[in-house]
Amino acid sequence: MSKLKAGMIGGGGDGAFFGRVHERACALDGTRELVAGALRSSADASMEAAAVWGIQGYPDYQAMIDAWKSGDLELDYAIIVTPNNAHFGPAKACVEAGLPLVCEKPMTFTPGEAEELAALVKETNVPFVLAHTYTGHPMMMLAREMVKNGDIGEIRKVNSWYNQGWLATALEDEGLQQAQWRTDPSRTGISNCGGDIGTHAFIAATWVSGQPVTRVSARLNSFVPGRTLDDDFNVIAELGNGGTALIHATQIAMGYRNDNGFQVFGTKGSLEWHQEAAEKLLVRRGAHDETYWIGANFDFFPQSIASYLRVPAGHHEDFFEALANLHGTLERQIRRARGEDAPEPYAHPSVDEGVAGMNFVKAAVDSSANSGAWTDL
Amino acid sequence: MSKLKAGMIGGGGDGAFFGRVHERACALDGTRELVAGALRSSADASMEAAAVWGIQGYPDYQAMIDAWKSGDLELDYAIIVTPNNAHFGPAKACVEAGLPLVCEKPMTFTPGEAEELAALVKETNVPFVLAHTYTGHPMMMLAREMVKNGDIGEIRKVNSWYNQGWLATALEDEGLQQAQWRTDPSRTGISNCGGDIGTHAFIAATWVSGQPVTRVSARLNSFVPGRTLDDDFNVIAELGNGGTALIHATQIAMGYRNDNGFQVFGTKGSLEWHQEAAEKLLVRRGAHDETYWIGANFDFFPQSIASYLRVPAGHHEDFFEALANLHGTLERQIRRARGEDAPEPYAHPSVDEGVAGMNFVKAAVDSSANSGAWTDL
Amino acid sequence: MSKLKAGMIGGGGDGAFFGRVHERACALDGTRELVAGALRSSADASMEAAAVWGIQGYPDYQAMIDAWKSGDLELDYAIIVTPNNAHFGPAKACVEAGLPLVCEKPMTFTPGEAEELAALVKETNVPFVLAHTYTGHPMMMLAREMVKNGDIGEIRKVNSWYNQGWLATALEDEGLQQAQWRTDPSRTGISNCGGDIGTHAFIAATWVSGQPVTRVSARLNSFVPGRTLDDDFNVIAELGNGGTALIHATQIAMGYRNDNGFQVFGTKGSLEWHQEAAEKLLVRRGAHDETYWIGANFDFFPQSIASYLRVPAGHHEDFFEALANLHGTLERQIRRARGEDAPEPYAHPSVDEGVAGMNFVKAAVDSSANSGAWTDL
Amino acid sequence: MSKLKAGMIGGGGDGAFFGRVHERACALDGTRELVAGALRSSADASMEAAAVWGIQGYPDYQAMIDAWKSGDLELDYAIIVTPNNAHFGPAKACVEAGLPLVCEKPMTFTPGEAEELAALVKETNVPFVLAHTYTGHPMMMLAREMVKNGDIGEIRKVNSWYNQGWLATALEDEGLQQAQWRTDPSRTGISNCGGDIGTHAFIAATWVSGQPVTRVSARLNSFVPGRTLDDDFNVIAELGNGGTALIHATQIAMGYRNDNGFQVFGTKGSLEWHQEAAEKLLVRRGAHDETYWIGANFDFFPQSIASYLRVPAGHHEDFFEALANLHGTLERQIRRARGEDAPEPYAHPSVDEGVAGMNFVKAAVDSSANSGAWTDL
User: Fold this and answer.
1) What residue ranges do the domains of chain A occupy?
2) Are the Cβ atoms of B314 and C257 closer than 8 angstroms?
3) Which of A168, C53, D2, D267 is the most interior residue, by most CB within 10 Å?
4) ipTM at complex level
5) Which one-letter DSSP state was computed for residue C136?
6) Is D102 exposed, middle or buried (0-12, 13-18, 19+ CB in 10 A)?
7) Is C289 in contact with A291 (Cβ distance < 8 A)?
């Protein structure tokens, strides 16, 4: 079975460490490889970066897509790692050309773009995975399965969060690129904290619980002087079944790294997961607590998850492996579409989740601006 | 130095385990002892319970106070452990009689009663400690001191919570007394979850941070069918300095016990504490995390806290010791008022915190009823 | 039911903080109280200390026992908190006089004394509890019950340890009394680290597993210059059923406080417990880990343990409560001997465990001196 | 910079999951790739397996080496993943041919082979990395650096362990290949538990502490009926500087996965690390505990380690990344030898550690057979 070949769009900038993360997630399993890229926004920088990375360079994404269409370049999928405001263009181009893709989140810059892209993907049926990396963690997948199976009953409440501290000071004034584009409305959109990490808490609340958010009451703050966008994001949300979700994120939690996690409270039990201890899932049903650990040898994983696991328990698959699982889901979709043998792809986030995430952030921004009034998605 | 003698009001019912907790907190240090009580609401039951406990019984609290006033009974302070709706009467009677007291929280049944009692206490200067047990935990006291000293800078955000699961099913229908009075508006007031445990999260947010809550936007839920009062309580609050606090509590978190805790995010660092791991305080200031442990031998405790510690590090003082510290604070106040030698009492919660707590719950109930509108305290 | 009255022997020195710990453990439940004491080795100091403590003083333990025998002093039991070399005298005197007692560990100064005392206790049937405080922790009791019930099968291996750091420097040269008597052979006996804390690891290995140690191979070290006794203690032991126990303790583990704990590996499962997180017991049987928590409401506690629990789950009973449980066991023995109503006392350590502990330390010292040769107990 | 090309020897069997692990560790960084293999012991199976893996197959390792020597195959290094008894042959052949290699541990089947191979590697200077995967964990590397820098003073004691439970029952009788070769003396050598996982505890004790083990007193057990080799391994060791190390491992710890870890106690502080929480290092120096986390952004990493880190803090690099770091060390050696630009390789285990590990296991086996007599390495 030959390796799938990937082409990257964006991700080559000095401050864009996530390009290298996708490169590794692509390569990890030995069944996919990065072969080409339009890594920067300027043509020259793009060609230079590709040379450094040791892949085939293109001046821009359209050129890469064209090369593929014309048969000059073998390609199986694209990886979009551009800044938020530059997702839509290449994503649309890929889908229109029929090229499957892994696209970074948030899916687009505006809800309108998201709707348009989603419609296109559904119409064309082009494989599309939204890179909500944490959903690739097998224990988060297990949480979702346990909810689906009714193991913890009807969902009443979700508490999901994301605490970071790296923007507790105005790093954007000290020249840090990652901080600059995130706090810049023209590149990051209507929300910084909400769009960047609030969406992770949102995915935990909805993708795991199986419940959509229907309306929100929000309070956004800009704590660090000089910022126009939020660096703190607090939402009380109503779920589709009448439950409540607390969805909160902050970038000013000094000393916190990527403290993302969730608690899901059902009528029969509770689930708790922490991204920084991604290897375990805490289940509470009554008398004693249960801790489930990652491991290919454990029977409690349904085949839909077990097929993603690489090693027996006690050797943890973590961040790169989680993202590799999303690439793996796209790979499975691609191979099965071709009639190749591949396990069933897991239901990782795609365009529906992308649209919902965009609408969620928009509703939260609006609610906060409107004194926390309950606002429909 | 002779032992202080205490008389208990309430606490003798079958389901009222907290009377026994106060008895132990009173006795622990060997400097105080429980000698008398009006333990039940009916005279006969009261006398019977006292006989079982091996203390001097009284048919009602007034009789006990009268016995003390007349010199028939030696008494140094009272402990009020009645249901919420029966705090005000005996508390007022004690204060008017000049008898110091430890009073269970919430301080009264209504904000009006709270204001009246607070005014009386301030006028008379009778020692009064509000039994917010967790504030007796030395690591929570240390958190408060670190904030006061500016160790973590200006407070921007607090996340404080209290997750319980014991009311996830309708135990009140199965005859459990603790569940019955808590879910009964006539005995528990306008809020069940908010008043019972939301107030603990509130104290964490305000007493530790040193910031009052000025207004709130709230969402209360009654998840278990048949309940009129909230069993789930979510508040976004504004702090006095413009910061934000998430204050949330729930009683439907299946399998959670007393998961109370807080995170305080300041401009120079962060604090995190969990009641179920009360022996440590997590401090984050940058490069590496710091964990502070309880222990009489540690220099990082200011004398105001060190004077409460009973043993060197590695042997944890926990729940009973925390409540004993509140009794100890009252003891110090009493002894110093008499000119006896005693260390300075710590600034544990008293009537101001009691009033604030009542107003907080009232504002939250109102806000929730008013679609989450921001509501002043 | 009237309170039991206790008299303390030793424990009144400036550096002898454990006297105050026993005082609190005695008082905690409100059913026992400390009323008298011969707290120091000199008569004057003894009388002075008692005055400070507010109890009836005696110049020496014999005088206190005599006062009780003559009816001048009401007393129900004694608490022996003298240095190691002064346990035997008062313990023997108490037993001969028929006074029940809680005796600090190690039980005596020499194995010979231990044998003699044990024989006397068995002959007279005087209630005797050896103050192995940690065995009073309900989760350690639960571990023992689970082994007894066969829940984890036949025991193959135990790993038990005690890491402390407080003697990593020569505090005895800086005048610290606790360090001085512990490192002084004339007061502490043939082993410092082994006798003081190795015995805790020994109790975990034997009392929990239900298996005696039959022989040992040991390596003792004196790391801190100037010491003649061990400050590091390592034993490989054979258990009665052919299993193996690693029993190790050290006082030079910089920054470690009272890191005592054990792992018990059986043919059907494993148990793990840490004194510094005494509120939980970790059980591993296969697919997922199980964590059991302390709490009066949990059905998994047999009545023999449940009868000791004071509060529902989520409010932890810790160090003082554990020691109070040992006082409680003595109290139950005393009350039942008198025909009073009291729950069945738990099988907490007594003279057999005391003798075994003395023999264990002796065998370890001998083995180490003999190049680790396997040495019978 | 072109990718290094690797050829794998062994690792293709059904039960040999570690071949796939090395494949991923090779591929992860996008700078190395697996291109060829002699994956099984029979020629046919070897060719078949290679076809499945999608790489160039060879009937045996010599054929692969010959193809490289003759220029038919581009190759930069070999990866040896054969059973223990088949390391020496291919390793020697690679070194003699001048092909760098990553070799699984234990390095050889006998100490004699180890000495011979080590001499050859030193003579030829062929890059050689011993695949002690855990030493690739950055926090274990940091521990070693802190010791080297004197941060925790002179080493007094090490406690290192490895608890597994997967061999608590006779899986070898149920046809599990992994269990069969490990418990078979003809394939695994003189020790099962000691050789397989005791060596990990040994590396922790010596590589991190910087102290060799000079002699040992050991007790090995075969708990599961029917086994001739040890499944439980306990060693008290003397370190080069006079310190003591407890080095213990077991395969019968029901429910334990890969609980490997160490505590290092020095005169100025202590270090503690757990493989199953590899992302953090616990440092104790006094007042409060310090927890160091993995993260490319942390200044406390010296450049020698920082150059291995792939992402900022909060996204953990774990098992595959650790092994990839060892491949990375070999890659750096190879590239620098060619004059290519590459960061300095870290001092990961190589032949000296391999020889020491073999001698350690031999001495432990001998000591145990000789009633625990102290035995020189």
Assistant:
1) 4-126, 137-318+325-338+355-369
2) yes
3) A168
4) 0.96
5) G
6) buried
7) yes
